[in-house]
Amino acid sequence: MLELLVSTDLGGGPVHVRDLITGLAGPDFRFTVAGPAGGAFIPALTAAGADFEPIAADRLSPRALRDTIRLARARRIQVIHSHGKGAGLYGRIAARLSGAAAIHTFHGIHPAGSGRLYLRLERALARWSFAVVHVSESQAAEARSLGLAPAGRTRIIVNGIDAAAVRGAAARAPMSRERLGLRPDALVLATVARFDPVKRLEVLLRAMPLLAARVPEAQLLIVGDGPERDALHALARALAPGDRVVFAGALPDAARVLPVVDLYVTASRREGLPLAVLEAMACGLPVLASAAPGHVDAVEPEVTGRLVPLDDAPGLAAAAALLLRDPALRERMGRAGRERVEQHFARARVLVEIADLYREAAGFPAGSPPG
After folding, report:
1. Which of 77, 73, 54, 74 is nearest to 64 (CA)?
2. Taking 90 as the threshold, does the pLDDT of residue 6 lie above it?
3. Terminal CA-CA length for the chain
4. Tell me, what's the pLDDT at 112?
5. Is 202 helix (H, G, I), strand (E, B) or coil?
6. pLDDT at 75
7. What is the pLDDT of residue 240?
């Protein structure tokens, strides 16, 4: 198996691949991971049981395509599983030229400025794919409307987590409020995200002055890093001076911050099905989220949290104020969220479905080893 990534830093795609390797590596499945060199998450991928090969799948490069083809041929790869735009391009071309089966997983659909060209390319690449995987029902519905869910090749394998392991990691080494720079009496909103435009972290920052007028004790904790770091820090200084917003940086075990959090928040415009939201729910937190694909699958409105319109900073601030002022409601929603994760978003189910897909792609019956 070749898992091809556009990022080897901490993020949803690499964590998903780490979890697949952890759960499946052994006599039946041997994994190689390829992606950009130097990523902070590479040690986690290799510790899970994979070999790593550097390939710059995060940029357009004839060399990256050549390296992917050579790797697939040299290791006699039977299945190339790609994650992300560049990886999806190189992985499916390499599979076609090497005789491997191609699987591509969308961890969110982000056409961006090149939308029309991107969609045409993805539709063409779908014809070279054994399977196109969507990680939530809402993402699959969006994909169908865009022509990215080809009949007979589309699989919906809903994301999942090991809820007990997440809670265990959070409990074993929780990060204190003091260490994070949070006030002892603060009501803490938190989000874990890559600093990328699609995450719309600026909406959270614009909501904070409005929230502070209603809930002076509110503090926002942002865990993550990325290309928008400087712009977000500058906006936070302008909108919420002092310690109203705390940037914790990228943390490899972000669940460690959840025991000191009162409300998980996210304002993304698009998601596949974010693992960070599921982890927050597993730890008993209510979730306040934008009504984006992925979020609408995880959050049951008024049961496990609340949904607000996209890019609605005033609406987010108003909803956050209501939740922060009602600890009994937060506790009730948190319990319901924990139960929802355990019932509907278990990692064990994901591993079974992915393993069966790998066997099928390699030409072996479900439940039998691929070689």
Report:
1. 54
2. yes
3. 11
4. 59
5. helix
6. 97
7. 82
- Around Cβ 213, how many Cβ atoms within 10 Å? 11
pLDDT of residue 368: 59
The residues, ordered by sequence, that sit 6+ positions from 336 with a Cβ below 8 Å of its Cβ are: 300, 303, 304
Average pLDDT over residues 129-143: 96
Tell me which residue of 199, 207, 193 sits closest to 292, measured CA to CA.
Answer: 199
| Tokens coding 211 | 């929230």
For 112, counting Cβ atoms within 10 Å of its Cβ (0-12 exposed, 13-18 middle, 19+ buried), the class is exposed
Would you tell me how many other CB atoms lie within 10 Å of the CB of residue 30?
Answer: 17
pLDDT at 110: 77
3-state class (DSSP) for residue 162: coil
In sequence order, the β-bridge partners of residue 35 are: 54
Beta-sheet pairing, 79-83 with 101-106: parallel
Q: What is the pLDDT of residue 371?
A: 39
Q: Which of 22, 31, 21 is nearest to 1 (CA)?
A: 31
Cα 244 to Cα 312: distance, rounded to the nearest angstrom: 20
Residue 367's Cβ-count burial label (10 Å; 0-12, 13-18, 19+) is exposed
Cα 193–197–200 angle (5° rounding)?
65
pLDDT for the residue 290: 98
Longest dimension (CA), the chain: 62
∠ CA 205-274-34 to the nearest 5 degrees? 110
